[in-house]
Amino acid sequence: MNRYFYLILAFMALSLTACVESDTFLDENVEEKPFAQSELLVKFTPEVADMVAELSVKTRGTVTRSGVPTVDEVLDVVGTYNLERLFPVDERTEERTRQSGLHQWYIVRFNGEYDAEQVALRMQQLGEVQKIDFNRTIKRAYTGKAKPLSGRQMEYISLATRAAVSTNDPLLGAQWNLINNGDLFTAGDVVKSVKDADVQVAEAWNRSMGDESVIVAVLDEGIFVEHPDLINSMWVNEDEINRSHQDNDNNGYKGDYYGYNFAKNQGLITWDDIYDSGHGSHVAGVIAAQNNNGVGIGSIAGGNGSRPGVKIMSCQIFSGYTGSSSIAVSRAIKYAADNGAVVLQCSWGYVSGSANEFDWGEPGFATQEEWEAGAPLEKDALDYFTHNAGSPNGPIDGGVAVFASGNEEAPQAGYPGASDDYVSVAATAADFTPAVYTNYGPGTTISAPGGDQDYYYDYIDETHTYGEVGCILSTLPYHVSESGYGYMEGTSMSTPHVSAVVALGISYATELRRHFTEKELRDLLHATATPIDEYMVGKKTYYRYVADMGLVKPMQMELAEYKGQMGAGQANAAAFLAAIEGAGVEMRFPNLYIAEGGSVATSPARYFVGGEELTYTVSIADTSIATCTVNGGKALFSGVKSGATTATIKASNGVEHKFNITVRKGATNNGWL
């Protein structure tokens, strides 16, 4: 059996080293299985996939055979009782789904005497099968809860004043990760804070504080959507009805109003299970808690109060003790791309291939080749996101996937983030030094603040205890923290900093009407990072805190081992946005494809700088082929007869864009918009 079949997504970066209370919550009743034993994920050839789909339409339900004798012979032997297309049909995106080959993936369920490994061996021999994957059981490595922020602490922080704070969010003074003046974390002669050891949002905010057209998909626990600092930042599916049990928009997911709960296969997002850690809400707050609302924290891309910031789509893959699966994760990734997200926030990943086996068990994938061979469904889904999110006529063509590097102190990032195609984030403290738990080295592309409780063991005052203020302060559900705020740490916290910086950059590109490919934006992100190698000198001393024992003996890191190993440096929002200003290409009004007798509506303002303040006129060379009316900021193009014609749209400031209109029978009307 191929060894890759046995590598499982066993340890997640989710709050692995979070600032937690002494209690941990481990599910001792859950049977440990690396993957489901009664089902496989099979990618058939296109011909077989189409035959199964046709049978499904004919039977109006469960399909038990493929219609191909060689395949059905194997299915008969293993006792197959169900074949289900893995990704639901959404007519709006079915064409590109088929082009990417995702329609070929099926869940094959069986109830015979054979287990998943045995069935995989049989199916591998069939020419009609292109790839095989297991439905891995995906669990968090640590389920401790965050350290809540008390009312007394909130009052203490709110009274503090900080320079360069440009919003009225009362807790921003404690968010060194956003604005670090170098005046925090001193113990005697030891200074553990460096000015500007943050993500440089204060200067970046002079250019943009986020744009509501930019959507970040958070693959995590469910988000507390009713939190006062988050409710106005949530993405809403306007074609759905909140708490509905119907698929009103026919995208294959019922009631997906704020996103979808892939952990429980329902539209209702949940966050209040007694065993939920609040991690998804904490991540969301770092990215887009509402700025300048006089409440709680500030965030990187949460708008300026009068203008909304980026939107958060909740793609829930964890709930309480409920583990996730390869099916849930891959569906969440595709859902994000199909519903407008351009940034994929993933504070999870496989254990590093270089992790200590004594502490972490069998290491994960060691190379990109191993990961691609061992997790083909995951790779296909991520390829779909990076290639199909965004728009060739918008600020970004494709999507940026951001992953945690991992918390195993390993000299290699974990996959999938370590892949060449994604961003992998290591964690730093408030003085640019590596957090004591972070992975580093090959596969790590960039760093960001993640908190470092053990390093700040000696920073205690009248309201704060062991190391918590060295962690990341963000939003939490009320059952985790009565105040709605608290501390966590980990590469799972550094990751949303980078996701938010990317989203802020896309927001600025939107405002400038500049267009980038996802690779161009990734390259720009890395090129503008703050160099931090100069801080990799000497030893870093820290203490580990053990329940009922307190601080254990001091430990040390040799910082020289991290030199050149923390990616390109620390994410720098100000430099990133400044570089966007002179990069990319000008957005242009798109070519249109219209069905004969059909119509396409678009907003010209999206393609002109300051477009919301302008008016527009459209001239079409051959009005026997297509016509246009402009009303209320919308341009409605109608197809008259098959053919092609040139056209020009002119803004009231004199700027003109030329484009082509093609009218044809059977066009889908989604064209290139």
Number of helices: 14
CATH-defined fold name of the largest domain:
Rossmann fold
Shape: globular
Radius of gyration computed on alpha carbons: 26 Å
Count of domains: 3
- The CATH architecture classification of the largest domain is 3-Layer(aba) Sandwich
Structural class: alpha/beta
Q: Would you report the number of β strands?
A: 32
The level-1 CATH class of the largest domain: Alpha Beta
Please, could you describe this protein's structure?
The chain is of the alpha/beta class and 673 residues long. It folds into three domains: 35-135, 2-Layer Sandwich (Alpha-Beta Plaits); 147-580, Rossmann fold (3-Layer(aba) Sandwich); 588-664, Immunoglobulin-like (Sandwich). Helix content is 21%, strand content 21%. It contains 14 helices and 32 strands. Strands 10-11-9-13-15-16-17 form a seven-stranded parallel beta sheet, sandwiched between helices. A four-stranded antiparallel beta sheet has the order 2-3-1-4. A hairpin with a 2-residue loop joins strand 29 (626-631) and strand 30. The longest helix is centred in the C-terminal third of the chain and has 22 residues, at 491-512. Residues 1-18, 20-31 and 669-673 have low confidence and may be disordered.
